[in-house]
Each structure stands twice: as C-alpha cells, then as structure tokens.
Amino acid sequence: MSNLNTTAGRPPAPAKIKLPRVNGRYLWPLLGLFLLLAVNLAITPEFFRIEIQDGRLYGSLIDVLNRSAPVALLAIGMTLVIATGGIDLSVGATMAIAGAVCANLIVGGVDSIFLVVAAGLAAGLMAGAVNGGLVSYMGIQPIVATLILMVAGRGIAQLINAGQIVTFQSEAFAFIGTGTLLGLPFPIVLVLIVFALVQLLMRKTALGLFVESVGCNAGASYYLGINQRAVKIVAYCIAGICAALAGMISAADIQGSDANNAGLWLELDAILAVVIGGASLMGGRFSIPLSIVGVLVIQCLGTTIIMSGLPAKFNLLIKAVVVIFVLLLQSPLFQQQMGALFARFQKRTNTEAKV
Amino acid sequence: MNLLSLSGMEKRYPGVKALDGVDFQLRAGEIHALLGENGAGKSTLVKVMTGALQGDGGSMSFLGAPLKLKSTAHAQSVGISTVYQEVNLLPNLTVAQNLYLGREPKRFGLIDWKRINRQSREVLKRFDLDIDVSRPLSSFSVAVQQLIAIARGVDMSAKVLVLDEPTASLDADECEQLFGVMRELRDKGIGIVFITHFLDQVYAVCDRITVLRNGQLVGEFEAATLSRSELVGHMLGKELQAQTHGREHREEKSLTQPLLEVQELAVSGSLQPTSLCVRRGEAVGLAGLLGSGRSEVCRAVFGVDRKTSGTLKVNDAEKHFLQPADAISEGLALCPEDRKTSGIVGPLSIRENIALALQARRGWWRPISRVEQERLAQRFIRELQIATPDAEKPIEQLSGGNQQKVILARWLATSPQLLVLDEPTRGVDIGAHAEILKLIRQFCRDGMSLLVTSSELDELLAFSDRVAVMRDRRKVAEIEGDDITEGNIMRAIAEA
C-alpha cells in the first residue's frame, strides 16, 4: 500500500524548516505567576533573597516551593486523570492512607525505610487501581467513583490508626519531609524527580498521546485500537502513587499520621492548579509543566496574602477572586469580548481624533 | 379533505438544504408512510410538522386554516402528537402518572389520584391494554411503553399522530399489536404519519407513501399501486432499467485465497446469522437500505459488537475478536460510519490522527518519533491530497471530506489486509466524494481487500467485484460479476 501514485508527476513539497510554535497556552498562567511574584516583591523586598546556611538554601521563595510540594505531586497525577476526561477526588484521602500505613509500620518496628516507603506506595497504587477499575470497568462516573474513596479512604486511614493520631520517631522517614539533598529541601527534590519521570513516561513513550486521544474522544480511541480502559487505569494509578508520596511528605513533616487532617481539601487545590494551568475538565490536551505553574500560583497567593498583612479572614475570599481572574483571562469567550470592547474603544478614539 | 398540509417547505442549515420546497399532505383517516434514506430530510420534515423546528419558507395549514407552530407544546395543543423511537416518557413514574403528566385532573387544587388511575384504566382499555396503571412505566416492555406513549398522544385529543420509527425496537408480535392499534385509530379518523425503514411494515399498514430524497420530494404514491422495486427505485433515486455496471474490467478473482470468511455470524439484537467471504484483492460491496444491517456487519467483523454465534476466520484461522484492537492486530481496519463520534479525535492534529492507529498497534512503549510522524503525515497529505496548510491543524477544523481522507490515511499507515469502509462518502462534499471514490478504486488496483457499504448504487457498481445485499438484518442475496447491475441490486433489496 505504500505506492499510492495519485500525485505522480508532482514534485515533492520542499521540506519546510519549522520553528517551534510559540504556545499561547503558556502565556496566561505564567503571566499570572509573574504578576503575583511582582506583588510579593513590592510587599516584601527580600522575597527573592536566598541564603545558604549549613549547606541548605533558605528564603521565602524556597519556602513557597517546599510548602507547595504535596499539592504539586497531587497536581502531576491529577493532570493525567483530568486529561482522560476524569477527575480524582480521593487523592487527599489517599494521602491519609499512605501516611497511616507508613506510620504504623514504623511504630510496629519495621526498620527498613525502603519497606516502609514501598508499603506506602503500594497503598497509593491500590487506591488508584480501585478508582481506575470503578471508572473504566464498572463505568461509574469518575466524580462518583472517586467520591467513594474520598469518604471511605479517611475511614480506612482511621481504622489503620485505630482512631488515634499515630506519632513515630524515625530519622530516616523524617528525611522525606524535612531532609536536605543537594542544598534543596527534600520535598522539592522529590517533586523534581517525579515530574521528570512522569514527563518522560508521557512524552518519550506514546502514553501521553494515548491519554490525550482517550480524553478527546474515547469512542474513536476504542475504534482505532487503543485500550482506553488500561490508559485510564494507568492515569488513576499514577495519581494514586503521587498522592501516596504527598502523604508521606506530610506525615514525615509532623512525624505522625493524622487520619482526619492529612491532605484535607488538598484534592481541590490540585484540581484548581490543573485548571489554572489551562486544562479542560472535559479531557484532552494536557501539560504537566503548566499544572506546576498553577500550583505555584496558588501557593504564592497564600504567601502574598499573609505577607501583605491582611487579616487571615480575607484569605479564602481573595483566593477565590484571583482564581476567577486567572480563569477569565484564559477563557476564549472573555478574550473575544475584551477584544471587541477594545476595538470599539479604539474606533471611538479614532473618530474623535478626526473630529 | 386534507387534515394537515405542508407546501413548499424549506429549511436551510449552514452548507445544506435539508428541505427544498417539500409538499406533504395528510388526510384524515389514513396511515401515511414517510420514507427516505439518510439525509433525505425525513426527520427535518417531522420536526417542522411537530413544531420542534421552524421552516425557513413555505406554509402549513391544519384543517384548512393556516397554522404557524411555535413549539412542540403548541403543536400538541392543536392536536398534533408525536411518539418518538426512544420512548420519551418518565420510566420511574407510574403508567397513570405518565399518561396525565402536566395535565393532572385536580380536586380542591390538589391532584386527584383516584380519578387519574380510573381514567388511565379506561384510556388503556381502548387499546386492549389491561395493565396495572399504578406500576412504574419501566416495568413494562418497550412495546407496551410505545402503546402508552401513543395512548397519551391520542388522549390529548390528537387529530394527527406522528410515529417516528416506533417499531425499531419491537419484535414481530409487538409490531402486529401496534399495527392493530394504528388501524383502529385510522378508522376513527385520525391521520397517522408513520416513519420506518422496514418496507414490509409500510405495505402492511400504510395507505399512502411520500418519498423524500436529498431534501426534495420524490413523489406521493398510493401504497396499493406502487411495487416494491419501484419504491426502492424512488428511494435510491434510480429508475429500474437494465444498466451495465460501471466497472470496465473485472479480473477473475474467485481463485484467490479467502482472506475473511464469516459463517453464520450473528449479534443478538442487531444481526441475523450472515455468511460472507472476502478474498484477497477483492472488493465486496454491501448494499441495502438504512437499517438493513450493513453497518452491523462491519461492526461485527471488526469486533466492535461481540458476536453471539457463528465463526469468523482470517486467513483460514478462526478468530474471536473481543474489541477492535484484536481485529486491527489481524490486519483489519474500519472507517466507521459516524465519523464525528467514532472516527476523528477532534482536537488532535492531522499528524497525530494519522499516527494514532499505527501507534496503538505498535504499543505505547515503542513510540513513533516526531520526525517519523511528520514524514507519515506529509506523505499522506500529498498522496491523498488532503487540503490543509500544514499537518498541525486540528482535524476538527477540516471539511468532512478531508477528515475522511485523514481517517483513510490513519488506516493505510497500518498497511491493512482488509479495509472496511462504512459509508465512506457520507457527509462529504461533491468534490471530495469523487476523490474518495478514486482512492477506493486505487486501493482495489493495489490489491487490498475491501468491504464497502454504501447507499449509493453507482458507488457500489464502480468498484465491487461482488455485492452482498442486506435486508432485515441478514444477507438476502449475493450478486457477482456481470450480474452486478442497479436493477439486480434493487430487485434484491425490494424482494420480500
């Protein structure tokens, strides 16, 4: 079939040298982030100052990055799930489960840090597999399927902890939350590693293309031979593993597992970050770097509000206003309307100038 | 006297004229079939008639007085009721609640449930339905639900009843029950518009027939004096006469190995046992009217619908396809009928759409490099003459014909042994139509096996080595060689 000669006699089109296309999607989230950073700089001039003490970087910026690590991990997984046209509400609860599993193993006398971490990751993988199975094999709507684990997950964590807050002493495990590697707080390093791995998995294999294809049109993807169920399960499993890592960071941070509060409402921040990053909740095209930008916007905003000296009671409201603003900037309809408004304004000033 | 009359009805959509000056007359006390293939304008005409759409031109009169429908509710209030293919009542409410939904008899401002139940029983008795009206609608069969929907329409003092494919999901006995009710209503002076794909049913109950084609009126006929083959000819836009087939030279291919062999393949609910064989390098056409089982054959062969019985062999080895991926790995490919929902992956680029099937076949761990994808895309854009500035344009921004070419390119990239094309020229503009036909002929010459469905007879004549004719979800005839003429195909479609 390679010798279709319908265009015989026509010279082959000259190979065009293509410039990398400037992607408009990056413009608005990045602009939002820069704006916030600028505001921070205006309020606290030392915002960008980074010092080195005892071989570790210190500064507000590092703090922002460090504190955003759990949400960043969640957002990486959430990006994939949303790209398949789903959503995962259970990642906060999965954090709690992973934290509880690790804490109880340590308290129970398991010395091997690798075993503890592996058990935590396995818990996350299982949570993801359950979500993915419910969505792709049972055909349950993602929001309902993951709502089950969102509620039940905290119950499972409470059972593991026998209703208590389980505290532990383990320097090795605490390192996940408070350690330093290569001068950076370990959570930041962890985010960088996971980001690189997932990005490689998505863009250097065909998995990313399959995820986008399934998210854009699951029916057509089935017809052309993509195992769309497997693709969805993989997305939920990665989200589960990311959530488990986030859960270990937050458990290591406080040297304890609090089934009620670990990762509480963080799934919403993660979803918000993905949306600020410009992804459609209908599924389709995704960009993990943009989701990370979304995470930083959310985290910076929190810092900005605190730094600006506004009473804490304004936090949530200001957050909501900024989020609406960023989303408006990205809305094609809003851009169109603003464009029309601008054009009308320009026309009027032009005619006035003539008169 | 005409009960409902439409004259010069027009309806335009961007790029298409769905109705082009159509006249339609419904008399009191008749059952009037409205027939036509896909895109003929049936459903648009029904929507205009029932107030769901407003025509762009033309006029309508009801009982001799001009009428301009504003909504379906308005149509209902003057006495035009519609029953759709999918019962659109509320399955979790009781039969009685459904019958009186939105017009419940009140007593002291409150709903009078006793009266509703009593009246419901009386209404249904007229339809020979003696059922417990306080049970939820969903506890009855689809046929009974259809009858209840009709009863609701008639009880709302309907003078005109529009039945849009009411028999699509009914079995023979249930159809008979429905026809009984229809005849009874006709004798009471109600005018019934009946839409169906099944010619047997048309002749079983209808008095007159109106045929549409491509948005235009073909004609209005008395059922008693119109033969089946004439009717099929009108629907397909062909005169019944012996015509020689369009393919100048047919090679003898009966000696080559069978590539696909299907024995008594059946899918419950959509395909009766059907046998079919496609040899290497052979093009087999699938003819038949809408709903005859053409697409169902394609879907069953490609593993979209799981077979319930029968065998399927590829290269003499029996296969069980559970999903399209299984069929693809055996070298099959399918361009589905519904391009938008099952073909294109809209927001992705032409390049990605072309690469997807090959990539899916190779597996996720063996990616096709960007450079390779671009080379593939450039090659097919050139060879299939896909009109686009570059390969990065999202496929959804292309015209229907170019989208279809991209889908073809997607499958050609996998070098399939058998290409199944389900209505490859549906929704494609005239220019691209000819080009796609040219491509199909090209595939034939290159020795690919083809299984192609089409509602256009000249298309089938143009490339088929053999034509299998489908009717009532089973194969009824197979025409080979010089016997492939429009007349023979139409006779096979029409014969009872």
Write the layout of secondary structure elements.
The complex is a heterodimer of chains A (355) and B (496).
Chain A: H1 27-43, E1 51-53, E2 56-58, H2 60-67, H3 69-83, H4 91-107, H5 113-136, H6 142-160, E3 166-167, H7 171-178, E4 180-181, E5 184-185, H8 186-203, H9 207-216, H10 218-223, H11 228-254, E6 256-257, H12 266-276, H13 288-307, H14 315-330, H15 332-354
Antiparallel strand pairs in A: 1-2, 3-6, 4-5
Chain B: E1 2-13, E2 16-27, E3 31-35, H1 42-49, E4 57-62, E5 65-66, H2 72-78, E6 80-83, H3 95-99, E7 106-107, E8 110-111, H4 113-125, H5 142-155, E9 160-164, H6 172-187, E10 191-195, H7 199-205, E11 208-213, E12 216-222, H8 228-236, E13 258-267, E14 271-279, E15 283-287, H9 294-301, E16 309-314, E17 317-318, H10 324-329, E18 332-335, H11 339-343, H12 350-362, H13 370-383, H14 400-412, E19 418-422, H15 430-445, E20 449-453, H16 457-463, E21 466-471, E22 474-480, H17 486-494
Kindly describe this structure:
The complex is a heterodimer of chains A (355) and B (496). By secondary structure, chain A is mainly alpha-helical. Chain A is built from 15 helices and 6 strands. Chain A has a single domain, classed as ABC transporter involved in vitamin B12 uptake, BtuC (Orthogonal Bundle), CATH 1.10.3470. Chain A has a two-stranded antiparallel ribbon with strand order 1-2. A two-stranded antiparallel ribbon of chain A has the order 3-6. In chain A, strands 4-5 form a two-stranded antiparallel sheet. The relative contact order of chain A is 0.17. The model of chain A is unreliable at 1-22 (pLDDT under 50). Chain B folds into 2 domains: 2-226, 3-Layer(aba) Sandwich (Rossmann fold); 258-494, P-loop containing nucleotide triphosphate hydrolases (Rossmann fold, 3-Layer(aba) Sandwich), CATH 3.40.50.300. Helix content of chain B is 34%, strand content 26%. A 6-stranded mixed sheet of chain B has the order 6-9-10-3-11-12, sandwiched between helices. Chain B has a 6-stranded mixed sheet with strand order 18-19-20-15-21-22, with helices on both faces. In chain B, helix 5 packs parallel to helix 6, helix 8 (228-236) crosses helix 17 (486-494) and helix 14 (400-412) packs parallel to helix 15 (430-445). The chains are: A mainly alpha (355), B alpha/beta (496).
